[in-house]
Amino acid sequence: MKIVIAEKPSVARELAKVFGATTKKNGYIEGKGYSFTWAFGHLLQLAPPQEYGFIGWRRQHLPMLPKKFKLAIRKIKTKEGFVDDPAVKKQLDIIRQLFDEATEIIVATDAGREGELIFRYIYYYLKCKKPFKRLWISSQTDEAIKEGFRNLKPGTDYDTLFNSAHCRSESDWLVGMNATQALSISAGARSVLSLGRVQTPTLAMICSRYLEIKNFVPQTYYQLSIQLDQQGQIFKAISVNSFDKKEEAEALFEKIEDLKSGFPNGGHILDVEAKPRKEPPPLLHDLSSLQQEANKKKGFTADQTLSLLQNLYESKLVSYPRTGSRYIGDDIFAGIPDLIRKVSDHPDFGKQADFLQTVSLNKRSVNAKKVTDHHAILPTGENAYGLSADKQAIYDMVVGRMLEAFHQECVKEVTKITVESGSLFTANGTVIRSAGWRSVWNDNEEEKKDEDNPSLPKVKKGELLPIIEKQLLEKQTKPKAMYNEASLLKALETSGKEIEDEELRYAMKDTGLGTPATRASIIETLITREYIIREKRNLVPTSKGLAVYDVVKDQKIAQAELTGQWEKRLEEIRTGASVTDFKSEITDYTRTITNELLAAGATLLDKMSPKTESVKAG
DNA sequence: GCAAGGTC
């Protein structure tokens, strides 16, 4: 019997289907000489400190540097505390039995670093010694799967990939566990003060933005505004320059030749510029962009959106949700017309679905090279009925985005009129000529700048128009907005792009901080630790969060660059570089940060404002 | 009690 092991049940089912294996057994599918089984993501994790004898949180244990890491079954939280997840235990037993009977093991976990780790941890935990082959495919179509099985690779081809995954895993444990205990212990251990490669830079981003806003000093500046009349159609123009000094603005204000000052036609039209502007449709959704849309439109948290989406996925209504790709391959594209046809009876989208069947589809989201482990999120075409309001809302965002992505571009006409009257003024207007993809949601929620006119009257260069009103505007510069879940997710995705060091920036070019699958839980962790709170839609640091930030802000653990450095080294390991070098670097770093935090944490209590900590202390 | 990673 040949055993195929996938990362998750949906993939195992897909593979079994291609082979025509149909006998459903407990925990696997059998047929045609194969058994298709699965994991549920990581079944095993690095064992916690107490399993190496580090019982309790004690200064003398630090840094904890296990000689050899152990693996432990994934835990779930119950009333009695953390226990082995029974579902995981059961699945491991099934896998063990299948491996025992196997004549051949075929690894079909996702084609990437973590997919490799998921399998290897199982394999080593079960002490399996049989050789294995690797299925390596980047598309889940029948043809790609068949081709992949014709081209199975020797399992050992991926040993270096496993090495890099293993290093990632152990390094996160070493740095995270030690830094967390060091800070907690030295701060008096009243509560858990967690730190980690991903959560701490995320906290730092939220805190530094908050402080930037808090310390922001608004600057007053002045602008001039005039209203012109073109045969009864009124439009507004704003001075090209803004002024720091009021006197300067007042001097030019006096020079405006408006009606009240005795000028019947004081607005000289210097120039009229009308340009079409084309907006291509947005790309299909990946998890992050969908979480952002759901947060903006519905106020859902990243975590809520992920769980609603997981639910839709388990009901087979949408494709795999934790994807980082916003593209599909040509094979999937071939099925899009069918999917669009099925939307025809949708109450909101039916009309646009009908329209799309009459035109050729936009292929902006079609690019097989940009499909990684999973393609962009799509509906499956199964009938969706009786969904809860929240689930329906998410489902509609998936369907709506599909229609948008394959729709036509939106064509706007942007007009700019330049007026002279003592000084220069411009009037801007935007008119949608052809809504294209924007007709799907029809909510045209483009932020309108307040100086924008919805539409401008026909005006010709050289014309003279009456100025019916003039105003001196006193304005203030505004700080950046506080992070909310949508803007934070975006910032996590792009955090690598702001790194100055070119190599580190390159190392993070397709990762950012965290992964699509983990970002929602990072936000939740920071909330559980009482580092941040949700205030309306904003994520605001607490005094505890700010105090932790203050201790670590200049340390490497608070910088996105740390991930960049690791990614660079891990990629080198994947291509064959020494593992021992990296490991000893991480050990050194663990020692350093542990000692620094053991010393620094003592100052942390002073930094917390009285209202959070001393109340509890009293 | 603690990381980050994956998923039901």
From TrEMBL:
Reactions catalysed according to its record:
ATP-independent breakage of single-stranded DNA, followed by passage and rejoining
Q: Give the InterPro entries listed for this entry.
A: Topo_IA, Topo_IA_2, Topo_IA_cen, Topo_IA_cen_sub1, Topo_IA_cen_sub2, Topo_IA_cen_sub3, Topo_IA_core_domain, Topo_IA_DNA-bd_dom
GO biological process terms, alphabetically, are:
DNA recombination; DNA repair; DNA topological change
Q: Which domain of life is it from?
A: Bacteria
Q: Name the keywords, alphabetized.
A: DNA-binding, Isomerase, Metal-binding, Topoisomerase
Identify the residues that the record assigns to the Topo IA-type catalytic domain, covering every copy.
Answer: 158-598
User: Which residues does the UniProt record annotate as the domain Toprim?
Assistant: 1-141
EC no.? 5.6.2.1
Listed SUPFAM superfamilies: Prokaryotic type I DNA topoisomerase
Q: GO: which molecular function terms?
A: DNA binding; DNA topoisomerase type I (single strand cut, ATP-independent) activity; metal ion binding
Q: What class of enzyme is it?
A: isomerase
A GO CC annotation recorded here is: cytoplasmic replication fork
Q: Which family does it belong to?
A: Belongs to the type IA topoisomerase family.
Q: Which PANTHER family match?
A: DNA TOPOISOMERASE 3-ALPHA (PTHR11390:SF21), PROKARYOTIC DNA TOPOISOMERASE (PTHR11390)
Q: Output this protein's name.
A: DNA topoisomerase
Protein species of origin: Pedobacter nutrimenti
